[in-house]
Specification:
This protein has an 8-stranded mixed β-sheet, sandwiched between helices. Helix content is 29%, strand content 21%. Helix 1 crosses helix 4. It has a single domain, classed as 3-Layer(aba) Sandwich (Rossmann fold). The C terminus is likely disordered. It is globular and about 40 Å long. The protein has 235 residues and is α/β, with parallel strands linked by helices. Bound molecules: S-adenosylmethionine. S-adenosylmethionine binds next to helix 3 and helix 7.
Length: 235
């Protein structure tokens, strides 16, 4: 293993804003964010740029970046400590295990900026917007909580829309490269800056998932989609 990685992994152990998913204990979420609070989560946060951007904009809210790659996550954790962003934390864990780490109903919303597109057919179930993952997220979201996706990959957008439809969800917002500085979608990670420089279209989607019920049976989506043209499965 490269020396830099080893140094970072050792440093992660002692960072107060990093939770190691292999060793977290029940109650860590309340300890970090406060009991009854809801937080915004970035899935596959990499270097944590989106989590940091949101935390800077909303000092009164809690943010958690999740990634299985400790070396990347280290970058975000260091910046958060340097800037005194006490409302941002990072969880090192595979998102496949998210339900074992995050209490149900405590996620205000989920952001998935520039997930790995995993274009091969055999990889589809590992996409962070596959029906399998959406089912994991449903029970974590607080009432009205939504899922935000940003990507430059048109095929992934189509896949995500179909996946949301298949679990009974709705499309709330669809925009292509129209982020403004007033908007949370105006946070640009290194990936987004690179794709914009290349002239690629950036797709933004916001989805609502059906609430999870205790019995595990789907409940219907309560909030209406913004317009009939953006309703998944409409007509
Ligand atoms: C393309 S990067 C995007 C990083 C960040 N969202 C951004 O926009 O800069 C995708 C990240 O997702 C993480 N990732 C992918 N699948 C994951 C999984 N199943 N569990 C945890 N992290 C995952 C990877 O480690 C990588 O850091």
């Amino acid at each position: 293993m490269a020396r830099q990685k080893l140094v970072r992994f050792a440093a992660l152990e002692n960072m107060p804003n990093v939770i190691d998913g292999r060793r977290d204990r029940p109650g860590w979420f309340d300890d970090v964010f406060g009991p009854q609070s809801t937080v915004t989560i970035e899935l596959g946060c990499g270097r944590g740029e989106y989590t940091l951007g949101l935390a800077r904009r909303h000092p009164d809210r809690g943010f958690l970046g999740i990634d299985r790659n400790g070396g990347r996550l280290w970058n975000g954790a260091v910046v958060a400590l340097d800037e005194g962003l006490s409302n941002a934390a990072f969880l090192r864990a595979p998102i496949e295990d998210i339900e074992g780490h995050i209490p149900p109903g405590r996620v205000a919303d989920l952001w998935i900026p520039f997930p790995d597109p995993l274009p091969k057919r055999r990889q589809t179930q590992h996409r962070l917007v596959s029906p399998l993952f959406l089912e994991r997220y449903r029970g974590l979201l607080a009432p009205g909580g939504s899922v935000h996706l940003k990507t430059d990959d048109a095929e992934l957008v189509a896949f995500a829309e179909e996946a949301v439809r298949s679990v009974g969800g709705q499309l709330l917002r669809a925009a292509n490269a129209n982020a403004t500085d007033q908007d949370e979608t105006a946070i640009h990670t290194t990936y987004e800056r690179k794709y914009r420089t290349q002239g690629r279209t950036i797709y933004e989607r916001q989805f609502l998932l059906p609430r999870a019920s205790r019995s595990g049976v789907h409940t219907t989506v309560r909030r209406n989609a913004v317009s009939s043209s953006s309703t998944l499965g409409g007509s």
